[in-house]
Amino acid sequence: MKTRTTTYIALMVALLIVLGFIPGIPLGFIPVPIVLQNLGVMLAGALLGSRKGFLAVAIFLLLVAIGAPFLPGGRSGLVTLFGPTAGYLLTYPFAAFFIGLGLEKVKTTKLWVQFLIIWIFDVLLIDICGSIVLSFQTSLPLTKSLFSNLIFIPGDTLKASICLIIYRKFADRLTHLYN
């Protein structure tokens, strides 16, 4: 791996860490706060591509697993990867991978197609997987867990729009990372 590529991956890990210091908004009815870190996940996949985006997010989660307090509220450790938010967190690297893969394979300049790739593979994938694990962790019926996640859709859609704007601004300069 080239030094430049390693630097981009490290910068993306740093962005995920910085976004973790922004406090989450607790909802009260489910133990999952509204956070900004999934914007970093979207950006990792969009800007770094599938493999490198996956790697950046996986490194971030490894740091969290070994105790670095990089999640909102200073949460860290293996317990966070097995708690109510586990489904969301463990889906992060796969969301980055599929966003990158989608943008790599579907070579289009159509705004709505690029947005849909980011939205489906981040917003839907993370929220559905997170809902399933949340249901098991909290004994909440799956339908209620899925419906409770509707609260995330507007904010996550806004984050996907922000990601798309940043991606379109820098995509031409970072295409070498997709190889």
TrEMBL record:
<dbReference type="GO" id="GO:0005886">
    <property type="term" value="C:plasma membrane"/>
</dbReference>
<feature type="transmembrane region" description="Helical">
    <location>
        <begin position="7"/>
        <end position="24"/>
    </location>
</feature>
<dbReference type="InterPro" id="IPR003784">
    <property type="entry name" value="BioY"/>
</dbReference>
<feature type="transmembrane region" description="Helical">
    <location>
        <begin position="53"/>
        <end position="71"/>
    </location>
</feature>
<feature type="transmembrane region" description="Helical">
    <location>
        <begin position="77"/>
        <end position="99"/>
    </location>
</feature>
<keyword id="KW-0813">Transport</keyword>
<feature type="transmembrane region" description="Helical">
    <location>
        <begin position="146"/>
        <end position="167"/>
    </location>
</feature>
<protein>
    <recommendedName>
        <fullName>Biotin transporter</fullName>
    </recommendedName>
</protein>
<keyword id="KW-0472">Membrane</keyword>
<keyword id="KW-1133">Transmembrane helix</keyword>
<dbReference type="Pfam" id="PF02632">
    <property type="entry name" value="BioY"/>
</dbReference>
<keyword id="KW-1003">Cell membrane</keyword>
<dbReference type="GO" id="GO:0015225">
    <property type="term" value="F:biotin transmembrane transporter activity"/>
</dbReference>
<keyword id="KW-0812">Transmembrane</keyword>
<feature type="transmembrane region" description="Helical">
    <location>
        <begin position="111"/>
        <end position="134"/>
    </location>
</feature>
<comment type="similarity">
    <text>Belongs to the BioY family.</text>
</comment>
